[in-house]
Amino acid sequence: MHEVITTLSAKRRERQIRYERNLLRELPIEALKKSFQSHFDSFRINGGARMEQSVEEGCYDVAIEAYLLGGHYSRFGYYGEPLEQAKKRCETELKHITDTLYNFWLYWTFGKDTMQESIYYTCEQFTDYWWTYGFKKGEQRRKLRLH
Length: 147
Prior knowledge:
The mean pLDDT is 88. This protein starts with 7 loop residues before the first helix and ends with a helix. By secondary structure, the chain is mainly α. The longest helix is centred in the middle third of the chain and has 31 residues, at 48-78. The chain has helices at 8-25, 29-40, 48-78, 83-89, 91-108, 116-143.
């Protein structure tokens, strides 16, 4: 008989991947599109439809990262911690996601000085929206014991 030995970190990673996969099943693609349009519709990309599609898809990637991060930290909310306090726990990671999106936009808008502050504020709102959405979905899953 062969016995498979797994490490604790491998088991944790496996459980995390399974949780993320289940959480992603509840992420509506239409909501991603609407959120992108409502947050970034005022910014224009030069380069045609293909460039715009690339930027949109890049924003989806960032939204998914923020969503999963919020879902991951929802365990603190499930145990009674307020949303804002749980958000402070991952402040560094969330800021990194926001900064990544901001730099992405600066690249595609060619770093126009007049828009930089506006872009950063919008990126912050976008990542915050998706972090909160993930947090609430994760809390729901935990309450329903679907985690």
